[in-house]
Specification:
Elements (H helix, E strand, L loop, with lengths): L2 E7 L4 E5 L2 E3 L1 E10 L2 E2 L5 E4 L2 E5 L2 E3 L2 E8 L6 E4 L2 E5 L2 E3 L2 E2 L3 E3 L9 E3 L2 E5 L2 E4 L2 E2 L3 E3 L2 E3 L2 E5 L5 E4 L2 E2 L3 E3 L8 E3 L2 E5 L2 E4 L2 E2 L1
Parallel strand pairs: 1-4, 2-7, 3-8, 4-9, 6-10, 7-11, 8-12, 9-13, 9-14, 10-15, 11-16, 12-17, 13-18, 14-19, 15-20, 16-21, 17-22, 18-23, 19-24, 20-25, 21-26, 22-27, 23-28
Antiparallel strand pairs: 5-6
Length: 196
């Protein structure tokens, strides 16, 4: 059984997780004008379950929160489950809440994903799906907004997106959108994923 938690505010259920195991949690509500949590490496994260996660496993969790990024946020990962992830495992999780980061500055380098906003270092996303719309001023993906495996491989497998994905910018930041990933570089693998 899942525990359902209603949240309203500017942060996800957990601001920061390190070395945790989070299972069978469902959140719903609204994260409007969300600002999230800032990590030590200048990145910020906003996630329905967790804003910033390191060395953490998420299993059978889901998000139904509507997330709208504050217009002043930059260098932010926005995700239905995790905003910014370092060495995380996300397994059998789902997102039903719309994500909108399109109000940010045209120069903002933000990454929005239905499951994870931005991930680095040995991250695995498996058997996850997104059915909600994801919009970002820079990079948007149905499963992950951005992935960089420079310090360790990132694997996205057996995932499915059914949401509408949109990214657009008129500023200096590059814009990209994808049914599974918005942006990926260095040791990132996709296995048996589907976008419909």
């Amino acid at each position: 059984d899942q525990d359902t938690i209603i949240i309203h505010g500017t942060n996800g259920l957990f601001a920061y997780c390190d070395g945790a195991t989070i299972e069978n949690i469902h959140v719903k509500g609204n994260l409007l004008d969300a600002t999230g949590t800032v990590s030590e490496d200048i990145w910020a994260g906003i996630g329905g379950i967790c804003d910033i996660a390191k060395n953490t496993t998420f299993s059978h969790c889901s998000n139904a929160c509507k997330i709208e990024l504050d217009e002043d946020c930059e260098m932010t990962g926005v995700g239905g489950i995790v905003g910014y992830g370092v060495h995380v495992i996300v397994d059998s999780c789902s997102n039903y809440g719309s994500i909108n980061s399109a109000a940010a500055s045209a120069d903002a380098e933000n990454f929005s994903g239905g499951i994870v906003g931005f991930a680095v270092e040995e991250t695995t996303i498996n058997f996850c799906y997104n059915v909600a719309n994801v919009k970002d001023i820079a990079c948007a993906g149905g499963i992950i907004g951005g992935a960089s495996g420079a310090s360790g491989s990132i694997t996205i497998s057996n995932c499915k997106n059914e949401g509408y994905i949109q990214a657009s910018t008129s500023g200096s930041a590059e814009s990209s959108a994808g049914g599974i990933a918005g942006f990926q570089v260095n040791n990132t693998s996709f296995i048996s994923c589907l976008n419909t």
